[in-house]
Amino acid sequence: MRKDDCIFCKIANGEIPSKTLYQDENFRVILDLGPATRGHALILPKAHYANLYELPEDTAAAAMKLAKRMAGTMTEKLHADGLNLVQNNGETAGQTVMHFHLHLIPRYKDDGQHILWKPNTVSEEELEEIQKQITE
Ligand code: 5GP
Ligand code: ZN
Q: Quick one: how far is CA 106 from the chain centroid?
């Protein structure tokens, strides 16, 4: 369940120190060392799964429950105006550490961050084609 050369395995299991906000049997929540905003935190499962594709469904459900609790606490205690949940899978999607993690990014009015995407346009035909491709 652990991967020897994985830094987040070592952090999650306490072999490398971190600024821990919460931990239990299955998860550790730490402050990110390259924060997007003040209080940017990461939810790490203690077991090694490279990404969302590998994550068991029950661990995914538990991670989201924990995210919900942490989001409320962090937003209140940090006096944030909102919070983004971000989760990257694969290098193309911006994943740099190949151990599943969920970003909790508190947002503040005028914090200057650009976490949301630039919307493109799409035709009705393209939408139908995509829908078919995914569902059939
Ligand atoms: P990703 O780009 O893979 O979704 O996110 C990786 C995150 O881990 C980045 O936000 C980066 O700042 C953070 N990070 C990388 N190495 C360390 C570390 O050793 N300790 C902590 N606390 N955060 C790290
Ligand atoms: Zn790992």
A: 12
